[in-house]
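Record type: monomer structure entry
Structure origin: computed from sequence
Chain ID: A
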Amino acid sequence: MSELFDAVDALLASRAALPPPAERKRLRAAHGLTIDEVATALKVRRATVSGWESGKTEPRPPERDAYARLLDKLAELYPATPVETATPAPDAAVPTTFTAAPAPAEAQTLSTGEAPEAAVMTATENTQTPAPVAAAPAAAPRPARTTRTSSTSRRPGAKKAAPAGTPAGGADPRFENGPLAVVDVEDGKVLAYCTGGLVLDVPAKSIPALVDWTLREAKLGAPKLSGPGKDADPLLVLTEAALERYGLPVTLTEEEKHAGRIPEGHKVIKQLTRAEWKLTKRGFGPWARIYRPATGSERACVQLCIPSWNALDTRHWGTAGQLPPAELARVLGVYASRVMTPRGSTAVTGLELMTALHPPTRASEPDENGKRHSEHNPGSLGKDAIDPMNWPPCEVPEGHPVLKDLPRFHVRGPAEKVFEEAYDWARPMTDAECTLRHLVGIDVNMAFAAGANGLPVGLGEATHVKAPVFDPKLPGSWLVDLSHVDLSRVKVGKEWVELDGSLLPSPFTPKGERPEGPAWYATPTVAYAAELGYEVRPIEAWVRYDNGRYLDGWYNRLRDAYLATMADLGVDADLSPEDFLAAMDGYKARDRELAIVTTAIKATVKGGLGKLRERPRGEGWRPGEPWRALSRPTWRPDIRAAVISRTRINLHRKIVKHASFTGQYPIAILSDCVVYAAGGPSPLDFLPYREGKPLPGGFKLGVNPGLVKHEGTQDVLWGEEVREKFNAPELNLARYIKDGTVTDADNGE
């Protein structure tokens, strides 16, 4: 009988009643739960819970019953409040005018090329949003306004509903109008274009008044991403018309561009000073922050973004800066809801996202007097930067204070510094490869994000160890001789295989050259030498016993943002290889605004990692002196080196697996792009798929980070002609495989 009862219970659970998706999201947010916390409790992926809340998918047993139970309990704690009608009482006060945009229309066609991402090795720059990954609405044209007003006692939902799936705050009444607004002037009226098609009338006559209005009435911003974190400050994007209205220059002079700000004596800055508002040290520039010192837990800060001052770098944001206000609000709103509210360039935002997910401090347990205090948040990098003089000399770039005693023109070699960088390698084609017709490039999706996933990194200072025993689980830098590793005979899995080592790059150097003696490497590189079957005996090391998977949450958020946006563009994660290649063909033209978001997400990955080793940016700096970035806890060149090391090793592992199974070797590699000679123009002409299944441990077509897509195809004859023209047998064809145009620019991802 008990089995029958169990069967009945299971049947009931399979149809457990659930509230609508929007209510599921409201209940979770009302209790202060993140999607990650719910996913962990139910033992499902974060994207699964996000799908339940967006209505894309429905839970199935056994998770459905547990999810229903959670929502029932939350509904008891936070009953839904009846929504007021949108028509105000006749005597209602009218502080703000809400204008609802018409239904989304077909997106305008925009000319946007594939902008190169921020290089991981060259990023040089010095909040938070709702956790759910929302579906992106269709592009909305500039609305023909129909003005409606609402009462001061209006509850969330009283305004006209935004289009389905808009990336607005929604769940938190403090931020019901979304994370940001684009401020424009039309027919003499100042308007704030919010996410979801909402438009607000702005009464402010000056920048100080605009800041006041934003904080008091606009209901802009976003909830914190982590329990101990801080809510995201509202973001205002000022169009050229808004700049003119508020007395700011439409463009910066050459001197102002070089300084990165307008002069301190500008009249707008004087207005802010009189109103007791402050600016951060970077002044009033493309990404100005206007604030008053926090009082208790209350923050008063507004972020400005000024596209005509080059706030939205075209390399990472394409044509976003030229979009009409409603479309720009959509682009930035989708990015804000899926990544975080921009805090500066994509590089700055990538770094800020790390801190938002791992705040440096948290509130302690109550002491004997019932008071809580600020304490270190475990798993974070803490609130204090590492003392510049405590850095291992091998991990820092040239000019660092710890190297100040080196001779002025001394050039450090491999035995003096860690040199973990992405691949830039090529070789001449063999006679057999020249008989094939095509050169096919494949590119690893979000390769550096995949390299960060699950990677243990140091959280604190390093400890110096002489003659250490290598530990592949211990983050650090190791001085070790790997010149004995012979790629002609390596272990693949548990078996030794014979390869043509002359056709493979060394996994230990960016140029693919075999090391000649002891050199400094990050842990993943040394671990791979051992994986290939060779003994490693470090001479010395700088290791970090305090470590953790600091970048996991960062990876998960950026992965989910990328996959959700690609799905909106028609590229899903569960497509067959053939369908994936077809879906990727021209995907950016389906919605050019969302295509901008995908480029920005990828630039956030590379730029954020690049800023972990930010170099001096002028400011009168001289070699041997500290520079501003060194004062950040997030100045961590060791973490950057570990991610690049693991990314390069992940790629080499796939190349070796592919070579051992097919006998095919790469002709060129640039970062995460690999070129092979093939008999046909498609990746399927050389990737070994059997019944739709890829080679285990090899390359796999797909949209997920770490999988590959088609980068481009050219004729073998093209490759030979290019190399002959430039008299360069080892010209890196991966740099030009995308469109065949040979320039000095790197158009790889």
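Annotation 1: The two ends are 62 Å apart (CA to CA).
Annotation 2: Confidence is low (pLDDT under 50) at residues 82-119, 121-167, 745-749.
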